[in-house]
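name: query_chain
kind: protein
chains: 1
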Amino acid sequence: MKMNNNGARTRYSGLAQKGTGPGARSSHAITVVGHKAYAFGGEFSPRIPVDNKLHVFDLEDQTWSVAAAVGDIPPPRVGVTMAAIGTTIYIFGGRDLEHKELNELYSFDTCTNVWMLLSSDEVGPPHRSYHSMAADEQRVYIFGGCGNAGRLNDLWAYDISDRQWIQLPSPDESCRPRGGPGLAVAGGKIWVVYGFSGVELDDVHCFDPISEKWTLVETSGDKPSPRSVFSTAGIGKYVIIYGGEIDPSDLGHLGAGKFSAEVFALDTETNAWKKLKDFSDASEQPGPRGWCAFSCGKIEGKEGLLVYGGNSPTNDRLDDIFFLTPSLEEGK
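structure:
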């Protein structure tokens, strides 16, 4: 197989869907626990939340179901984020039917199907939507997004043992407030990648949770063009990004901008970007899109990026699911 720079390549697999799934949507969220993916929120028509069901996709038999959830069930919302630690899912924020920014943190226990409201109102991060979320083994991290009075660039952590929010230091003015950024944990650090601040951005910032210091990262290599609302995953020492909006619509959230179909990987040890050549069959390629639901996951023991739905260049919401398997080292 012919390979491009440094052997970096990727392959997509389109996943079949059995059962009644969530259908087409964008501005939603998905996260993986074991061999199941959990999807929540989103819109079909711009800015109108679809539902508040927790849809479950079995990655092994590729069948959809709806969790028989009880407890503090979150109301419908768009621009919401999800992450999982162990068998517990966490969702934060979003925007409701009245376009109000939200700041509740909920947990969902995938063993008991119980939702629990963990914080709201004056506790924790300010209200926001179209922010970003990532997690390590102990904390859930929230960065940026669209707040009540404009875009944000603050970083918060929720400690699952102490059950408390921690406001971490904010970056300096080099990290502009932004919506739709990439956020990933890689190499023990928190990475903020690109986003939208009124224009598409192409900067990278890194937060070290030990020293609590921010760094503006000078990157090299095959650098992606400025973009936002792309799919992001931290895999090993790499931050993987796929797609995203590279030219915004004049209609804002009501329209579709120009989207990318490219895949890039940032090596967080060398700070070098690689563009991953796609070796998928044409029928397996997801094409250009943004505003997707995405998560790290494993299928057949291979770690990769799960992408579900999103918005297309024709402003149609999508309902397909793809799994990206990157190969980033020579000979693999």
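note: The chain is about 0% helix and 50% strand.
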